[in-house]
Specification:
Elements (H helix, E strand, L loop, with lengths): L9 H8 L6 E4 L6 E5 L5 E5 L2 E2 L4 H8 L1 H10 L9 E4 L1 H6 L7 H11 L3 E5 L9 E3 L2 H14 L2 E5 L5 E8 L3 E8 L2 E3 L6 H14 L11 H8 L14 E3 L11 E4 L6 H13 L4 E8 L10 E7 L5 H4 L3 H19 L1
Antiparallel strand pairs: 1-2, 2-3, 3-4, 5-8, 6-7, 6-8, 9-10, 9-14, 10-13, 11-12, 14-15
Length: 336
């Protein structure tokens, strides 16, 4: 039986664009997730998944840990998501001598914060395991899902606003887009389940490599709190949101806003990237307003030292070209 390759686009994109600057890319052929870049000077550089030889190791490791990055961002005066606190799986809580920071302590903390609360893995990516819990049942389901894949969990207050990612490369915002959670738009005839299957087929037809899991329990919970289910028929034009996180990897939509970012938000993203010791960074913001307006109320959701653009590239030909141009700039900066 032939092994299934992972579907990350980075290696293939780098192979395509590297010759433009006289470089070559050797991609490991079995899984296509690691590769070697050879620049015309003979210098070698490497990548694994979406991590390139660009950011320093210390800054990258901190950025991968949401709690630690929150600690440093807060210390430097950046507005982080409020009420954020970590809790541990039973096994890990015992191992580090904090048996009282377990799932039950997390629930008591959630009650003190007041439902609903956000529950998310501390080291996850692409929106995996992120849930909005409205009550005790939601909370324990979400927490157990987190602990299935991570030993550290974050509990936070939810913040409302538009979700944006700004990608910074060496003191410049090279991409910015609004991320919109997985949703369907009613036509007055089809059920939510039928609309979702249609959307999934459209993704496949457009070669967008996004796996919409119709059995994701978070979708059922989200619908239930809107007094809906998969058999509900939304009115024509009615938009129904199916998840709370807006990651493109979970079926979210994107809207390019690179040319609309207010200079103050550009300056903020560049400064935060530099303050976190990074050269390439995805800065995720929740803004109570719009990215083209002067900053008012906003929060730094997280920073990402390996901001993968695979899902964005597969939305369409225009986005694919944008991503190729972005990675060409990254290669030029790596060569320096």
């Amino acid at each position: 039986m032939k092994k299934k390759k992972e579907s990350l686009a980075l290696g293939r994109i780098l192979q395509k664009i590297a010759p433009r600057i006289g470089a070559t890319v050797l991609l490991e052929p079995e899984w296509e997730i690691v590769g070697q870049i050879t620049f015309k000077s003979g210098q070698h550089s490497y990548f694994r998944y979406n991590t390139l030889d660009l950011n320093p190791m210390g800054g990258s490791e901190i950025a991968r840990d949401k709690d630690y990055s929150n600690f440093f961002m807060k210390a430097m005066g950046y507005p982080i998501v409020p009420g954020s606190k970590t809790f541990f799986s039973d096994k890990w809580a015992q191992a580090i001598g904090s048996p009282r920071r377990n799932i039950d302590a997390a629930y008591r903390y959630a009650r003190r914060l007041g439902f609903p609360v956000i529950v998310k893995p501390n080291s996850g990516s692409q929106g995996a395991g992120v849930s909005l819990a409205h009550n005790k049942l939601d909370f324990y389901k979400a927490a157990r899902t987190v602990f299935d894949g991570d030993r550290v969990m974050l509990v936070q207050q939810p913040v409302r606003g538009k979700d944006y990612r700004l990608v910074v490369l060496d003191r410049k915002v090279i991409s910015a887009y609004e991320r919109i959670p997985l949703n369907v738009v009613g036509n007055g005839k089809y059920t939510i389940g039928q609309l979702l299957k249609t959307k999934r087929k459209l993704f496949v037809a457009s070669s967008r490599d996004t796996r919409i899991k119709t059995d994701d329990p978070r979708i059922a919970v989200k619908l239930a709190h809107q007094k809906l289910n998969f058999r509900s028929v939304p009115a024509k034009g009615q938009r129904v949101y199916l998840l709370d996180n807006a990651n493109l990897s979970t079926g979210g939509d994107s809207l390019d806003v690179t040319k609309k970012v207010h200079p103050a938000f550009e300056k903020l993203a560049v400064k935060l990237t530099r303050d976190m010791g990074l050269r390439l960074c995805g800065v995720d913001l929740i803004i109570d307003g719009d990215i083209n307006q002067k900053p008012g109320t906003y929060w730094v959701l997280e920073v990402n030292s390996a901001p993968g653009l695979d899902h964005y590239a597969k939305i369409g030909k225009a986005q694919e070209q944008i991503v190729e141009n972005l990675y060409l700039e990254v290669l030029k900066h790596m060569e320096r």
